[in-house]
Amino acid sequence: MRFLLFVLSLLMMFLLQGRFPALAQELVRLLPSETALTPAQSEQMKSIAELPSTEGVWLVEVDLSRIRGSATVVIALADGKSVTLTGDEKVPVATSDFAWSGESASSNSGEPSDWAEATITVEGDRIAATIRTANELYRIQPIGEGLHALIKVSDEKLPSDHGQLRRDRTSIERNVRTEDLRAKSDKANAVLDVLVLVTGRAANGIGSSNLQIFAKNAADAANRSFANSGIRARIQLTSVRRVEYTEAASLETDTSRLAGRSDGYMDGIHAIRDRENADLVVLLSANNSACGWSHKVYASANSAFASVYFDCAVNNLSFAHEIGHLLGACHNPEVSTGCPFAYGHGFLKPARRERTVMAYPCPQVKCIRRAQWSRPSNWGTARKHHAARVIDETAPRASNFR
């Protein structure tokens, strides 16, 4: 009897210490490689595996009962690893579609190698997710009939942010008027309505049935970065639509055509934008000449257009990055000049192998792009690296473009 009580006390201690979290909250579980797939599922797994950025892909099942009504989830990763994440708040059990963000208990510790964070978009019984750790990047996408793919992403295999450094750009708007910035009395969250367009080739790469959830996850990841950084702004999608367009040789050309109203390329999208009152327009493209391109830095209503290579949209936070350009934010000052806001640059943290949303890669070491905007004191300096202030100040202006 004493032995039984001793064993029970040990089990209770382990449970209280979180030693067995997977028994209670395992959201994602790896399936055997020999699991039977439909032809459509096999084709999706093949398409994922062929992406240059894919380092590995595994079949997984998702138990959404673990995320509804619970603040903590466990996600199984490759090589026997897993991450335990605690969300910002519990999701009511009856909720169908929602976004969930969480991080490991050590994400804010002093150990640069000991953090993890995730943004999960739930749509019925499907999820799209991005999981970042200090050394690895994963995403999860549906492949149909209740199954999902867990993808290990090599961010070093993604294109560079813009193909070339955007030094002394002529497309930087430098006419910043104080009256256009957020008033001190304005404490509200600015809602940025975004129309997302998807080319046919990009739709094939994403999966035609995944367009909505993919775009939602990109927006959710951007919103998570805003929340992390104390930015009073939120992205809201007006719609996600396929567009008849064949990509050019460069994203810069694609973006110019997207913005043009009478050049014979995607001209009909402007009426859609007006009808949906979309402040910004983002094209998801299969053009991998770069991760993204904004038509202007600190755009006006007539120039608030950007293009993003679909595989960079969430993996590289390029959806958020290009919207950051449209709102006036710039790269880290080591590679960026002529920013409309002297304090609007991204920030590198090579000692912790991290960088903010707007920062280019660290020159000497690999730095994971975090869902953080530069700001003092942990993520930048007030004089040069305060892109969070830029987004917070300019979002109300952009939210009134339409």
Descriptive overview:
With 402 residues, the protein is an alpha/beta fold. It has two domains: 137 residues, no CATH class; 153 residues, Collagenase (Catalytic Domain). The protein is 24% helix and 26% strand. The strands form three sheets. A nine-stranded mixed barrel has the order 1-2-9-8-7-6-5-4-3. A hairpin with a 5-residue loop joins β3 and β4. The N terminus is likely disordered.
Brief descriptors of the model:
alpha/beta; nine-stranded mixed beta barrel; 17 strands; 402 residues; single chain
How do the strands of the widest beta sheet line up side by side?
Answer: 1-2-9-8-7-6-5-4-3
Q: In CATH terms, what is the fold-level topology of the largest domain?
A: Collagenase (Catalytic Domain)
CATH superfamily of the largest domain: Collagenase (Catalytic Domain)
Cα(first) to Cα(last) distance is: 73 Å
Give the helix level as a range of percent: 10-25%
Could you give a short account of the major beta sheet? Answer: 9 strands, mixed, barrel
The level-1 CATH class of the largest domain: Alpha Beta
Total number of β-strand segments? Answer: 17
State the order of secondary-structure elements, H for helix, E for strand.
HHEHEEEEEEEEEHHEHHEEEHHEEEH
Classify the secondary structure makeup into a structural class: alpha/beta
Mean pLDDT: 88
Characterize this entry briefly.
This protein is of the alpha/beta class and 402 residues long. It has helices at 2-16, 21-25, 39-49, 200-206, 211-228, 251-259, 269-276, 310-313, 318-326, 387-398, and strands spanning 26-30, 54-62, 72-76, 82-87, 97-103, 116-123, 126-133, 137-144, 147-153, 190-199, 233-243, 280-285, 292-294, 305-309, 348-349, 354-355, 368-369.
